[in-house]
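Section handout 9: paired folding examples.
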Amino acid sequence: MTTTDSTAPTAPLRCYIAGVQHECSSFSPIPTALRDFRVYRWGVDPEESTLGFGYGESCRVARDLGFDLVTGPFSSCQPSLPAPHHVWEQVREGILEPLRAAGPVDLVWLCLHGAQMSDQEDDCEGDLLERVRELVGDEVAVGCLLDLHANVSTRMLDAADLVVACREYPHTDYDVRAAEMLPRLAQVRRGEVRPTTAAVRFMTPGIYPTPEEPIRSLVARFTEAQSRPGVLQVSFNHGFEGSDQPDLSASVVVTTDGDRGAAETLARSVGEDVLATILSGTWRGPGVAESVGLALAAEGRPVVIADRADNAGGGAAGDSTFLLAELLRRGVTDAAVALIWDPIAVDFCHAAGVGARLPLRIGGKCGPMSGAPVDLEVEVRSVRTDAAQALFGKGEPLFQLGRTAAVHAHGIDIVLSTVRTQVFSHHVFSQHGIDHLDRKVLVVKSTQHFMNDFGKFAASVVRCDGPGTLTADLATLPYTRIPRPMLGLDPVDRVELEAMPPVRVRQRVVPPTVTA
């Protein structure tokens, strides 16, 4: 899109960066409105430098590479139901309008999720990327950085030159992926490489922690494959099983420099390795009662129970009471639970004040997957308006929790919040005066992102698969539109790789004055 007189001095590549993150669960009890999208702007908002979904990291990388950086907004929404389509249109236009206003650019880099839907659009990322491509034309290099729980579509692959997923779960490597891929996107624009992509998909979406075996070694193997001559990128997308739509799947995406055969061969090879690794393991955890029993029997402290099914980071309400009720039933008196999303209970605690004793109905407010409310006589131990945690367990606690309260009853500390979010770091306890190292049991509403911090001090971890929006018992979820069979849902012990349709390779005319 940048065209200049060949006699003009060279200029840095002009790079537009923007994005949106909204993982949509078709089974969430939480509706989505425009007000739920928080908008960040690089260079304007003080928090933008700490934002950890790829946007802040990518802007820093582009700046350090010497690009002429043009930024649009980054909109972030807690996982929930697909938004009404008019909401998606407004979010999408918020990204496209600054791109139109920017004039000619050389690079477009979007920080996206890969599992965003509206009530009329199954593939919001594909929709956005297609419109970006129509706007900038074939000469501009277009790339996107995805959450690894993306359901990658052919539309995404056709519209973008590079479709790259973060590699780690917890997602601690957005900065690494941006530092790898933005220089490669520049190579695309300068005509130094010709991106050629192939992909395979397979119906094994799920939760695959990357710091642990066998996934740790799998990541090392496909990371090594990316270093081979002519390979630009290799991504393994875990998929998001909460998306009831036809693109639901795990996938492997490979991009080479002009060699379709090599891309197809490597995509199939890595895909077979991924599939064999998934099939070799058992990915379901114990239920509620068994999880508490295992935690109490384990040596050392603290033992962390991850309430995976009620993870707000996957669209759950975050107010289920199944584990809390089991701790109370067993008379456990050395435990702490966080975060239960309950704005009403928080309001009551703030009104009563620290030291107050009051009857409090906790959780169980959003529907059957939340369980029954728990009625307790509690002591209010802490109320805060400034509590925060460290996003993905990295750095300082700057991710705000809104108004919070900590209450104590029957030997159990319970942290309540008005911001619906999963647990990332121990600050959810420590900032409320709870010694997280001096509890036998810590219950955290999170699936895996808590591990980057809690894994450093937990004596052991129990991953509980109880009832909830993110239940591991997929047969309880009312799927109607996904490809079948799916591992964990249908009575099969394996599924097959499916080659995704061939992806377009663009012919580019490179202006002679384009430089890095």
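Moving on to protein 2 of 2.
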Amino acid sequence: MQSRRPAPLNVVPGDPEGTTWALPEGAIARLGKGIVLSGAGPKLALPPGGVYFAVQTRIGLWWYEMSSKSPIALWETERGLIASADFSPDGEWIAIANWDGILKVMGVRSGECIAQMKRMEEQNIYARVVFSPDRKWIATANQDGNVEVLDIHQGECIAQMDRGKRDTESNDVSHLEFSPDSKFLAATVHNPKLYSVHDGKLINPDTEGTQTYVWHPETGEAIIKFAGSKFVFSPDSRLIACACPDETLSKTEAADSIYNFISVWEIATGERFAYLTEHSKWGHRIVFSPCGLFLASSASRGEDGEEKILRVWELRKDVQKMVYTDSGKSSKEPFYSPEGVLLAAVDRQDTIEIWNMERREKLHTIELHPKSIDAKWFKKFPHSAITDKKTEVGNIHTSSTLREFACYPDPVLFLPDGETLATKGYRTGIVLWDVVRKQSRETLLKNTRISSFTVLPCGKMLAANVQDENVTVWDAEKPDEPIAEFTETEQAQLIWKTAFAPIGERLAVGSREGTIYLYDFKRNEKLKPLTGHTDFVWSVSFSPDGKRLVSSSSDETSRLWDTASGEQIATFPLDEPRTFMKVAFSPCGGIIATGMFGELRLWCAETLTTLLEIPQPQTQKPYALAFSPCGKYFASGTWWRREEGMAKMTIRLWDVATGEEITTFWGHPTDVQSLAFSPDNTLLASGSHDCTILLWDLKPFIDV
């Protein structure tokens, strides 16, 4: 079965990489394609046939051609923030759920909306969606862990699944699937331990741990429930198998244990059909044979877990039929061919090997980058490697990886040449972008987690990471030689809110309890901490000469400090307790801009008197601030709030002298977290929680 080619929505001729696809008005480029959403759900929507696939991101749904790994369409950018997606079994439709709680069913070839559903009484995000095999229903799981079944043709909810009484709710559904005959719906729910965000205390100490439910999809009635995960239905929908804990363990021990045994249940009777205890380590995959008479599973064995083992059971006789072992760290992913031949995809990190396990014969070796889209494809759907009844493997092109989704633009900083932009990598490193060519150029500190970094006037970049009680500072060009390392006591509770002094010798690190820790990393010295705040430090910012620092805290005070003496200079005079979400000094250091709920304010940096108050819409929080290098302008960006719906976030350009709004850009679907002007004032870069950077042309609006 071949995949239907998706409608080429938002494609711009002459731009094969999608840098200018679906750009908002005023933007000239988008750097990055938006982060693939985190969480337990699948990130790639994979249709039958494997010719095309769709990637869920925070800016929309990107379509890719499997063979070339090139983007061929970009859907749903008007909403962005894709939460989940799934293809109908025939590949004709795709269901797309968004953070606005709306679920759309769209025709793949037409791009038109076939059905749209929203649970009005449930203002919640669908974290998972899955089609029934007969294409009548869609099962959903929202962020509260509630599972529902929606009728596609009627456009309404027909059942909410009964999970029993729960004192706390969370997004804990990791696997949701209909049985092959559509008569049952199963889900794995984790019932995780939840802790208070205020005092860290355990809210639900009596959690029962990971459970798998099987329900009637039309009534929501629970048929069977048992401890287990990684479930799979038999082809005839009669049985369900899952990884489960050792029954000899206590309830508490079982909830915290590794599920290395296998239970097989008969759904109609609710009775356990088999209990397979031969595996001693974590199981990787469970699969039924096409006839339903055999079950194969893979796991580790031995104290170090390096020996991999694959077992096959004959279920009617409840006996182990075959055992296959392999030394080495490579995992096996068993699967059956349509003719019932047991195969396995063996992950060798840089390659995936397809084996006929019954003949112990290697059929093919596929060269892969370990983080490539192909690697994700084969690990999830190893049977896609089969191209004919002889179980041969087709040629796969594997040049592309998911690097294009890997930036986290907070902060965004221009280098002095004005042609290079620096951002944090999504998890590690500092990504350098070529502004002229509109593409990534290189990554510094590739394997290093970064909390913050800065670009000095000479172009040198410094980076810091805060991990537990440890603070490390690097020259970004020298990953193996930290400039300085500091360790605090456990009571310090350091956080990622950090700032470098512009002169390049000091670092300020916020904490949960309110203390701000200062370090002179050139001299490798701890300086006197700044004490006065009593709660989480929201922002820290040095003046251009590094002699002063502004901080803001959840204790609803903001303070100005002398960094040399470690003493407080003053508290910002406010008419009521408020928290500055963001702070920025003007280039000359004479003005401080602050963003608060519903207001921007400019202050005299010497006297802390108010120069300008600029009211903001009450639904918006100014979260990003930046002055232009010439000091005549400043920009502000807002923070996403669910109350605003799916409206794009605003980026506003202001005149410093008058406080007048010069223009407004509407671009990112979620938080604008960082802003930066180019050295010549002609470009504004905005970095967002969607993990893209938009470049805005300022020449029509300001004097340059």
